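Folded chain entry —
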Amino acid sequence: YVVQACIVGCIHFKGIRATIYKDAEEHTAYCIGDSHQDCIKYTGDDLMLHLGFEFKQQALDFQTHLWKMGRGEVVASLIGRVRDVVVSSTVAAQLGDRISASHYDAGLTESPAATLEDAASAADSPTTSNHSIALESPLAVFMSIEKPSAFCGGVDKAHIWPRKKCTDAEAQDPHNLLALSKTLHSCFNGPHRGIPQIAIRPLDSLAPAAVPGRRQRVMVAVEYREASSLVQWLALVLKDGTQRVETSPGCFEFHTWVESEDPTKFCHYLQRSYDAIKEMWNP
């Protein structure tokens, strides 16, 4: 039996291909043909799956697993992205070697994670990292632009102006931080350690409104580099109350907010980061 599926636009998210290798091993999947790299491969931004199974029930179990992935029950960032999941019959002679998680090649260009363990962390798995913070921490509560459901894999303490470019004072400045899910953190830093896929700017035209305590509400705009891949996902993960604004025909950005103790410093870092990212987008 053969299971075919397409995971749309997932090249922007770390660790998805490595996760599929693990899942294929656990569900006793086989290659169709000679190479596992042809059975789990990227076509453009989409990950295409073409896996063989000896028994029908194994194929159906893997189909169910993919459906769960598409509902965000396995990896939050894949909500709505797993499509065209089809089970069909094939002759046993077409089944090749068993697929093992050890077949995953982290050296391929579409594999931003360095190891299987890194991939599991980056794909919103229940794990921790050096940057993880508690969901109930003030940073996660006040300086997040995402729904709580996006944090099933943990919350990252993300530097707005990149840590590698910071002075010591900037690296320690609490106003140079956002709370981001691992997937959005990857988009903000740049998958493959390359060009960021989102940019966040302060909305200068809107004055911050007072909120309880010492914090002030700061409106921000979230832009994305490739509309076809990210717009639907961002609409799902950004927090309730976020507005999608059409900036030109067919192009959108998202307006949302954080609650900062020092809006002036926060907006300084945000604008500085935004300008640097836009330079990468428009060299």
The two ends are 48 Å apart (CA to CA). The chain has two domains: 2-121, 129-281. The longest strand covers residues 251-260.
